[in-house]
Amino acid sequence: MRWLSGSPDRVLAELGFNENFGQAGQDVRPVPQRPFERSIAMKPRFMNNRMFLWFVEFRHAMVWLRTFYLRKVFGMKLDPSVRISFKAHVDKTNPKGVVIKKDTVVAFNATILAHDWATERYGAQSRIVTEIGARCFVGCGSIIMPDVKIGDEVVVAAGAVVTHDVPSHSLVAGNPARIVRSGIRTRSYGRLIETDGIVAA
Fold first, then answer.
1. Torsion angle, alpha carbons of 156, 161, 163, 167, to 10
2. How far apart are the first and last CA of the chain?
């Protein structure tokens, strides 16, 4: 986990906010000086820069601690860089069947399943493995069904229900989810990179 350091103004600049961010009468839109490191948070008007940076660090620390807890207590195979929303649901019935690789984010109300009650595949004897690759984004309210493998650099749209394996470099949406774009590229945490040759499925 990368900790923020330096003066508040300097760190805000690194996160992509201009020097007038939050000042009365100024354009408060963030300036993407370094898009790779832009903060996912927006600075409320009542917060000064120092308080805002403390809040960002605190939130990142809590997300990291939750991932650490899921790895050490439940035995989930999560890369330390993985970010899982506090409102996301990760299967604890078969926790060792959950595999999420580096630089992937799971948004709020998403559900990742690794057991199937109907076919009696659950508990310690279950061989189900639900795997999500590196640099993926799992959108809010989406459901990843048991025994599904999602490749690297995949974006799962909000509300999608993924019932089958998804190849790398794909964008999937719908219920059941289908590939709506292929050939996409992403940065860390599933942030899309504009590339030529993106093909609609």
1. -10
2. 36
Two structure tokens written together for 109: 């109300």
Q: What is the pLDDT of residues 90-112, one digit of tens each?
A: 999 888 899 999 999 999 999 99
Domain boundaries, the chain: 1-74, 78-201
Q: How far is CA 144 from CA 21, 77, 104, 161, 175, in A?
A: 38, 16, 14, 6, 11
What would the DSSP string read from start to end of 102-168? TT-EE-TT-EE---BTTTTB-STT----EEE-TT-EE-TT-EE-TT-EE-SS-EEPTT-EE-S-B-S
pTM: 0.71
Query: Residue 78: what are its φ and ψ, rounded to 5°?
Result: -115, 130
Fold of 78-201: UDP N-Acetylglucosamine Acyltransferase; domain 1 (2.160.10)
83 beta partners: 105
Task: Tell me how far apart the alpha carbons of residues 67 and 104 are, in angstroms, rounded to a whole number.
Answer: 12
